[in-house]
């Protein structure tokens, strides 16, 4: 009887509404990933902690692309210093537990930046770094 007509009409309307919703869902894509910045920004990884032997240091590209001294005083900690000799600004080299200056022979402690041998008299200025999930990152 008349009940059958009502059922058929409701089915058609429901199908039409679903098709309209489908079009809307297709346009809802996520935003694109932002491109990685060319220069290391504060907080960006400088090196993996595991890349530096415990008790030694290494020269790596710092946050402003200038090389810095990255040290690993203990298994789980990192420290960083300017690589510019405090005597006349030559770049120091990392040699085990020492940082040596090729210009006039100053030697610094690779883990603290302190002067071991002159002519330099001032320690290498520290740079703030921290360890996050095995990565040494710039900033405290
Ligand atoms: S500049 Fe490093 S010892 Fe003179």
From TrEMBL:
Tell me the InterPro entries matching this sequence: Rieske_2Fe-2S, Rieske_2Fe-2S_sf, Rieske_Fe-S_prot, Rieske_Fe-S_prot_C, TAT_signal
Cited Gene3D superfamilies = Rieske [2Fe-2S] iron-sulphur domain
Q: What GO annotations for molecular function exist for this entry?
A: 2 iron, 2 sulfur cluster binding; metal ion binding; monooxygenase activity; oxidoreductase activity, acting on paired donors, with incorporation or reduction of molecular oxygen
Q: Which cofactor does it need?
A: [2Fe-2S] cluster
Rieske domain residues? 44-138
Keywords assigned by UniProt, alphabetized: 2Fe-2S, Disulfide bond, Iron, Iron-sulfur, Metal-binding
What the entry lists under CDD domains is as follows: Rieske
Against Pfam families, the record matches this protein to: Rieske
Kindly indicate whether the keyword rRNA-binding belongs to this entry: no
Q: Name one GO cellular component term.
A: membrane
> Looking at the keywords, is Transport present?
no
> What's its job?
Iron-sulfur subunit of the cytochrome bc1 complex, an essential component of the respiratory electron transport chain required for ATP synthesis. The bc1 complex catalyzes the oxidation of menaquinol and the reduction of cytochrome c in the respiratory chain. The bc1 complex operates through a Q-cycle mechanism that couples electron transfer to generation of the proton gradient that drives ATP synthesis.
Protein name (record): Cytochrome bc1 complex Rieske iron-sulfur subunit
Source organism (scientific name):
Amycolatopsis antarctica
């Amino acid at each position: 009887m008349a009940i059958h007509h009502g059922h058929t009409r409701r089915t058609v309307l429901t199908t039409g509404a679903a098709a309209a919703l489908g079009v809307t869902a297709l346009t809802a894509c996520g935003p694109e990933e932002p491109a990685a910045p060319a220069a290391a920004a504060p907080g960006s990884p400088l090196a993996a902690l595991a890349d530096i032997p415990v008790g030694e240091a290494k020269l790596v590209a710092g946050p402003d692309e200038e090389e810095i001294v990255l040290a690993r005083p203990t298994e789980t900690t990192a420290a960083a210093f300017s690589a510019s000799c405090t005597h006349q600004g030559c770049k120091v080299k990392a040699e085990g537990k020492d940082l040596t200056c090729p210009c006039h022979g100053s030697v610094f402690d690779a883990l603290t930046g302190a002067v071991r041998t002159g002519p330099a008299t001032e320690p290498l200025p520290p740079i703030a770094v921290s360890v996050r999930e095995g990565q040494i990152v710039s900033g405290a």
